[in-house]
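Page 42, continued from yesterday. The earlier attempt failed because a stray header line got pasted into the input along with the sequence. Redoing it now with the clean sequence only.
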Amino acid sequence: MINNQKNASYSLQQLVLYFLKIGTTGFGGPVALVGYMHKDLVEDRKWITEEDFKQGLALAQLAPGPLAAQLCIYLGFVHYRLIGATLVGLAFVIPSFIMVVLLGMAYKLYGGISWMQAVFYGVGAAVIGIIANSSYKLTTKSIGKFSIQSLKQNWLLWLFFVVAAGLTFYTKQEQLLLFVAVGFIYMLVKAPPKWAKTNTAQSLVFLQIGFWNYENDKLIKIAIFFAKAGAFVFGSGLAIVPFLHAGVVTENHWLTENQFIDSVAVAMITPGPVVITVGFIGYLVAGFPGACVAALATFLPCYLLTVIPAPYFKKISKNESIKAFVSGITAAVVGALVGSVIVIATRNIVDIPTGLMATASILALIYVKKIQEPHIILIAAILGCIVKLAL
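This time it went through. Structure tokens are written below.
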């Protein structure tokens, strides 16, 4: 049972101010943000117990949506229930949302100027390297290392991974129903629930929101699409990239390929959750209302899927069927991310300099331990300007 506020050694105001600070200054992506929260809240301040933190992290990993945002919402829920989860979630997201809206305004105003094009020439190449490195890390963390032993032990997950990567590359789209299907397949193989073992098992009908069946108002389309992104995409940080790429660039043609890469870059250079790139995309598509709708639609499912199961999560987290279902989906999602990286790279690595910058980004992230994504973005921006001026 989750504690109540009588057991809290801190006030709600202190917790909200902490997450406002980390939302404003917390660079490095979801893994780094989770590390900051553990060090500050568990080890140093001792506001949150190790057990509560681990349960929050487990829930964030099991449910779809951005990992760091879900964890902070859960930590707000631990002692201050719904009001804590709500205020903490807002404090964590709003600073980076304001930043990406301001960057969106500057992008629309100055996007056609040569110096900004030069900046994003280099940044776009670096982003591809960053995404490629993230996809590798997600693969090894979610499925296993690239070894014979891992292939033997997790052959089904590797099969899902390869199929999802191939389909994403071939169709240029992310296959949402495929994710759900492989999740159920892996659940039935590894940890079938009780209903699947009985003769009374009923067939399941999956309902997918018909994106084009709604009225043509752009804000409604944005709300539906980003709600799907927030509710169905498993994995942290850049795992949402292939889903966004398929809908924003391929299906709806809201952004060009270069604009999408720039949107991912904006998420890299701002603190807070990487998924906040949805605010930047929404702004480019439909101004400030679009940014608000996109951000709200993406984070609302994340909020609900955290606070609703939170009181019962100790029991839920031990369910092997649920764990197997999520493992199957995660394998397909990571595979789709790899396929998406290949698609984006073929369209944006256009010459030798961009190829070299993308490769250098990967090598820097692998071998230079202290370097972070914002540092790479800054260096790439400077190099982009130098190369463009030289050309």
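Notes: The chain has 17 helices and no strands.
Reminder to self: strip header lines before submitting.
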